Amino acid sequence: MSLKSIIATDKKPLIHCMPSDFIDEAISMMIDAGRNAVAVMERGNQLRGILTDHDIIRAVHDAQSKKQDIAKLQIQDWMTSKVITCSVDTKLTESLSLMGKHKIRHLVVTEADRAIAIVSIRDVLSQIHHNDELEVNVLRDMALASRGIIAA
User: Fold this and answer.
1) FRET pair for 65, CA 20 to 30 Å: which of 49, 95, 111, 123?
2) Is 51 helix (H, G, I), strand (E, B) or coil?
3) Which of 58, 49, 10, 46 is nearest to 38 (CA)?
4) Would you say residue 99 lies in a domain?
């Protein structure tokens, strides 16, 4: 099973902002969309980075320690610019391996070299759990049917 299975069931569009936008704008977008990360894109949909809840925590902590206004912090100063991407055809287990290898919790998913979604480790684990439940139910039903317990 691939990341396509997650993206197909997630009807929320990719949220994105520009590097010059302010962090408080990104926070509002993330809260409104129920997301923990936002893609950072230049005009023309060129992926430049990703801003995650962890990046925001670092920014807030830094701003507070320097007595700065968080509303004045730009995304480009706090985003992760080395973005780990994968295609929609990446297997769920491969995506988990990528996240583990790079010690990240979000992947930008691309299709035809265009960012189309951000998936979190929670999304992937939830999909794997769902797939496992389906498999267990099918195997249980097959075992019961073979014993003649389930009537047709």
Assistant:
1) 49
2) strand
3) 49
4) yes
Domain encompassing residue 22:
4-146
> Do 115 and 88 meet the contact criterion of CB atoms below 8 Å apart?
no
Q: What is the pLDDT of residue 44?
A: 75
What stretches in the chain show pLDDT beneath 50? none
pLDDT at res. 24: 94
The amino acid at 72: K
Q: Does residue 93 belong to any structural domain of this protein?
A: yes
Helix ranges (H only) for 66-120 are 92-102
Give the CATH number for residue 62. 3.10.580.10
What pLDDT is recorded for position 45? 83
Tracing tokens 């990240």 back to the chain, one arrives at 104
152 assigned to some structural domain: no
Looking at the structure of the chain, the number of domains it has is 1
Kindly list the distances between the CA atom of residue 144 and the CA atoms of 131, 133, 134, 135, in Å, as whole numbers in the listed order: 20, 16, 15, 14
3-state secondary structure 27-84: HHHHHHHCCCEEEEEECCCEEEEEEEHHHHHHHHHHHHHCCCCHHHCEHHHCCECCCC
pLDDT score at 47 = 95
Which pLDDT does position 151 carry in this prediction?
A: 52
